[in-house]
Amino acid sequence: MDLFTHVLVAYLVTYGIVGFKPSYLAAGALGGGLPDADALFFPIARRFPILRHHGITHSLFGVSLFAGAGALIAPLLAPGSALVYFLVLEVGGLCHIAQDGFTHFSVPPLLPFSDRRLELDADRAINFVTLIVSAASFYLLLGVERNHWPFVDYLLTIYALMAFFAVYFAVRLAGRWQVGRRLASLGDYQIVAPTTNPFAWLVLSEHDDGGRHRTTWAKYVFGKGIVRGPFTAEGLLEAPPPPRRAPANAQEALAWSYPAARRASGVLEATYHFGEAFRDAAGAWTAVWYSLEFTFLGRSAGVRVVFPPDGGPPTTHRAFYRPTVRPG
């Protein structure tokens, strides 16, 4: 989930626990965003992997550590009960863990004692629907309504947002459960991946065999079944020896480009993906590998690999590209 949604949901849950108590609401909202402070550990996370994003700060231990520290400091900044501050900070952090585990990006809630993952695959890590709703809600609550509109309007906004997120999470979870039940009847698929639309899902299978990686995917829509696909893309797991010629066809372009594309993009490496290849007017083969999970307005995060027609070394470029075969 995006940071706006983390903070807003924690704010709403805190309101449900303590009511309109501004100091506690601020602490609960802060607790909802604190786990993503692990971004500050990026320079040392490679040396200490437990500090990586979605590492120790996204665990019960890390959240409780934040809550304990906050319970000691918060009463010095704003009068209140240390116990209540601990409660709202803890709940805010737990909301963050639950929301991230709700998506396709796993979290390890039992670190440092266990690296067991929580991942429901019921939503995307960043869904622009909730991001826009959350950002607009903060502007409405803190900018438009604050000290300008009657308090009853604030309450109506709070309850409307509570209802929205309750319905949203319920619809997402029900959709994931339903497509999971039907997975075996749809074909050779083992993986369910969400799209921005809660009624449209991707079903995938991945196989590694003979040094090659193969991905097959299709788009599933409730009430219609599979409406697009299946599509298949293959690539080499290890980089081949430098070719002395340009790819002869799309299959070679995809196979040769796959290792370079994965090395060039952490997003591609961490998400399900597919590729397509085409030849331009100058005779150069281009392969583009797209994330199936990081998409926005018809574009996908991906890597473009261009093979010169004279057989020289390929070039790579990361950006958001619009695939010919749209994933969402």
Question: Can you characterise this structure?
Answer:
The chain is of the alpha+beta class and 328 residues long. It has two domains: 3-174, no CATH class; 191-321, no CATH class. Helices cover 44% and strands 22% of the residues. It is built from nine helices and eight strands. Strands 1-2-3-4 form a four-stranded antiparallel β-sheet. Strand 1 and strand 2 form a beta hairpin. Helix 1 runs antiparallel to helix 2. The longest helix has 36 residues, at 151-186. The radius of gyration is 23 Å and the shape is elongated. The mean pLDDT is 88.
List keywords for this structure.
about 325 residues; alpha+beta; 2 domains; 4-stranded antiparallel β-sheet; 9 helices; about 45% helix
Sheet having the most strands: 4 strands, antiparallel
Return the domain count.
2
> Span between N and C termini?
18 Å
How would you classify the helix and strand content by structural class? alpha+beta
Query: What count of helical segments does DSSP give?
Result: 9
The percentage helix is 40-55%
Low-confidence stretches: none
Average per-residue pLDDT, rounded, comes to: 88
Binned strand content = 15-25%
Order of helices and strands: HHHHHHHEEEEHHEEEE
The coarse overall form would be: elongated
Radius of gyration, CA atoms, in whole angstroms: 23 Å
**Secondary structure: number of strands:** 8
What order do the strands of the largest sheet run in, or round the barrel if closed? 1-2-3-4
